[in-house]
Amino acid sequence: MSEQVVEKFVERIDAVFLPVKNLEESLAWYQEIFGFDLRWKNERMCGLSIASNCGFHLVEISDFQPINKYTPFNYVVKDVENIRNKLINKNVTVSDLRKGEPKRFDLTDINGNMISVIEL
After folding, report:
1. Quick check: 46 and 57 in contact, CB under 8 A?
2. pTM, rounded to two decimals
3. 109: number of CA atoms within 13 Å, CB side?
4. Is residue 109 classed exposed, middle or buried when 0-12, 13-18 and 19+ CB atoms within 10 A define those classes?
5. Which 3 state secondary structure label does DSSP give 93?
């Protein structure tokens, strides 16, 4: 059986879309907790500024269900223990530090969505 070579043409993932139950409340929470700047907004979604090569979008979903069985993406930080303590001080629900590498923990946003925070 001969191996078929498939051309890879995707350069990177441009954006992550996180479902939320209320766009205005979620936008305010992400700006207050993380200091993310608003790039753009319409009636149903918004784009937040994290890094020049990463789009992070909140999308209001009418039949919203939180992503709470797994973490759909990671935030990368320089000092995971310091950031965990800052989030605790802001009353964000966080897990214990996970065992193993990389150093990491999970947080739960205002919508009940789980997100991992890792140190790289």
Report:
1. yes
2. 0.89
3. 31
4. buried
5. strand
Give me the residues paired with residue 106 across strands: 116
**Structural domains of the chain in order of their starting residue, each with its CATH number:** 15-119 (3.10.180.10)
Residue-wise pLDDT tens digits, 40-76: 999 999 999 998 878 899 999 999 999 999 999 999 9
Looking at residue 18, its amino acid is L
- Give DSSP secondary structure letters for 9-66: ------EEEEEES-HHHHHHHHHHHH-PEEEEE-SSEEEEEEETTEEEEEEE-TT---
Q: Which amino acid is at 80?
A: V
Cα–Cα distance measured from residue 110 to residue 26, given in angstroms and rounded to the nearest whole number: 7
* Structure tokens that stand for 21 in this block: 């139950």
- Tokens 């193993």 correspond to 100
Q: How far apart are CA 20 and CA 66, in angstroms?
A: 8
The H or E element that residue 114 is part of is strand 114-119
Residue 67 CB coordination number (10 Å): 16
